[in-house]
Structures are given as structure tokens and as C-alpha cells.
Amino acid sequence: LVGSEMCIRDRIGEVSTIVNDQLIDCWNWNANRTDLLRGCTLEIEPIKAVTYCEDCHKEYPTVEHGKICPYCGSEHTYLVRGNEVLIKEIAVE
């Protein structure tokens, strides 16, 4: 096997603090330094950030509204998803 027959698929949350383009640039630079990974691609599937309000029991988009619930104005909220960094798949042809 050679890298051109491989693909790494990650799922990365939109509030994970990872800059997807920079991660891909670093991956490409590093992968092309070795024969095994040369040409292996990195694909990123974004995970939307969602926050839950403990007062009105509704979920809402985190990036759009932040910590304040758009439905009731409460600050009693917490992030449900969107800060994950997961390897979804390592595909080998």
C-alpha cells in the first residue's frame, strides 16, 4: 500500500479550536515526507456546535447565539456537541 490509496476522515467540532485548513496543510506536509503516507489525504467532516438550555430545555446553534439562550434569554446553558475531534474512518483502497 501507498498513501495515494489511503484517506483519513475526521469529524471535528466547529468550536474545537482546530483550524481545519491549517490541520490539512500540516497533514499534507507531514504525509508527503514519508513513502508510506505520500499522497494520503485528510478529509474533515464538521460537527455543528449545539448548546442546551437548562431553563427552557431547548437546543440551539452555539456559534450563532453563544452562551445566551435565544428562546428564553437564560445563561444556564451548556455545550452538548461541537468540540469533538474524532477519527471517523481510515479508508484503504
Structure notes:
By secondary structure, the chain is of the alpha+beta class. 17% of the residues lie in helices and 38% in strands. It has two helices and six strands. The strands form two sheets. The chain has a three-stranded mixed β-sheet, covered by helices on one side. A three-stranded antiparallel β-sheet has the order 4-3-5. Strand 1 (6-13), helix 1 and strand 2 (41-47) form a beta-alpha-beta unit. The radius of gyration is 18 Å and the shape is elongated. It starts with 5 loop residues before the first strand and ends with a strand.
Question: Brief overview, please?
Answer:
This protein has helices spanning 20-31, 62-65, and strands at 6-13, 41-47, 50-53, 59-61, 77-81, 85-92.
How are the elements arranged and paired?
Layout: E1 6-13, H1 20-31, E2 41-47, E3 50-53, E4 59-61, H2 62-65, E5 77-81, E6 85-92
Parallel strand pairs: 1-2
Antiparallel strand pairs: 1-6, 3-4, 3-5
In N-to-C order, the SSE pattern is EHEEEHEE
Biggest sheet layout: 3 strands, mixed
Q: Tell me which oligomeric state these chains represent.
A: single chain
- What fraction strand? 35-45%
State the shape.
Answer: elongated
- Determine the mean pLDDT: 94
Features:
single chain, 93 residues, alpha+beta, three-stranded mixed β-sheet, three-stranded antiparallel β-sheet, 2 helices, 38% strand, elongated
